[in-house]
């Protein structure tokens, strides 16, 4: 007589136990930077296959910019504006089925970039000077203006949209103007030079001098203007002594 053991009650069950250990969280990402969405699926036997959905559609990893990491996390690098949307992690076991995580919202932001570079401007006294500067970003950046080493013309400047407008330009308005675009994710700046032409005027005038015969003499003379004026020396009632003496060479010498 043989003694037969009862049939085994063990079976190879395929189940998803418990809930997701870690579910994806809402995230803010900046264009050009990496983003990782975390997902740790429920325990199972065997381990589930992890996939991801964006806006209800299965994501197809490309092994370059969008990847599902071995631990189930989703990596996107670098982020682009089209990555904005709602993401879910899906854990699947053949035959048994799948479990889906809660949804996480990803919002994409952009650091400011300059779209229209301000251009250098040459103007005449009394003219209106307009310097354009356009930028983009998410959220849209604010635009501010300043003058390098100085202040904006008081009561003669205004900001129209994103452009700086200077009315009744004077020679003192010449200089470098700086446009700054800024949002919470960063800032960027651009520069333009303004040159307001001005008629020459003397800052140092020649003065009468009395000297002994044979002594050296220097006669200073300085003038300013925009563009810088050329200085010419001439003996009264006579010939031109020196042609095209510039401001840097403003001294008439007799030896």
TrEMBL record:
> What SMART domains does the database record attribute to this sequence?
IG, IGc2
Tell me the ranges covered by the Ig-like domain, including all copies: 7-107, 112-197, 200-255
Task: Show the GO MF annotations.
Answer: cell-cell adhesion mediator activity
What are the annotated GO cellular component locations?
axon; plasma membrane
Q: Where in the cell is it found?
A: Cell membrane
Q: Tell me, which GO biological process terms does this entry list? A: axon guidance; dendrite self-avoidance; homophilic cell adhesion via plasma membrane adhesion molecules
Disulfide bond in keyword set: yes
| Coiled coil (UniProt feature) | none
Q: What are the UniProt keywords, alphabetically?
A: Cell membrane, Disulfide bond, Glycoprotein, Immunoglobulin domain, Membrane, Repeat, Signal
What SUPFAM superfamilies does this protein map onto? Immunoglobulin
Q: Does the keyword Nucleus apply?
A: no
InterPro entries to which the protein is assigned, alphabetical: Ig-like_dom, Ig-like_dom_sf, Ig-like_fold, Ig_I-set, Ig_sub, Ig_sub2
Q: Which PANTHER family does this chain map to?
A: BASIGIN RELATED, FASCICLIN-2
- Under which name does UniProt file this protein? Putative roundabout-like 2
């Amino acid at each position: 007589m043989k003694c037969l053991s009862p049939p085994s009650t063990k079976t190879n069950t395929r189940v998803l136990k418990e809930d997701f250990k870690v579910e994806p969280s809402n995230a803010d990402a900046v264009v050009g930077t990496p983003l990782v969405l975390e997902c740790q699926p429920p325990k199972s036997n065997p381990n589930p296959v992890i996939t991801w959905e964006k806006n209800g559609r299965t994501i197809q990893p490309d092994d370059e910019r969008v990847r599902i990491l071995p631990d189930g996390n989703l990596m996107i690098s670098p982020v682009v504006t089209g990555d904005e949307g709602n993401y879910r992690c899906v854990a699947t076991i053949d035959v048994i089925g799948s479990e889906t995580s809660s949804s996480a919202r990803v919002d994409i932001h952009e650091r400011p970039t300059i779209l229209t570079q301000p251009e250098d401007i040459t103007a005449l006294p009394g003219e209106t000077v307009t310097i354009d500067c356009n930028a983009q970003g998410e959220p849209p950046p604010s635009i501010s203006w300043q003058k390098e080493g100085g202040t904006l013309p008081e009561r003669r400047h205004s900001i129209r949209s994103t452009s700086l407008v200077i009315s009744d330009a004077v020679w003192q308005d010449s200089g470098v103007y700086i446009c700054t675009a800024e949002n919470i994710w960063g800032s960027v700046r651009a520069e333009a030079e303004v040159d307001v032409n001005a008629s020459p005027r003397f800052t140092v005038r020649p003065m009468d001098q009395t000297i002994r015969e044979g002594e050296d003499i220097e006669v200073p003379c300085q003038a300013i203007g925009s563009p810088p004026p050329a200085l010419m020396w001439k003996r009264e009632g006579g010939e031109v002594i020196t042609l095209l003496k510039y401001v840097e060479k403003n001294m008439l010498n007799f030896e």
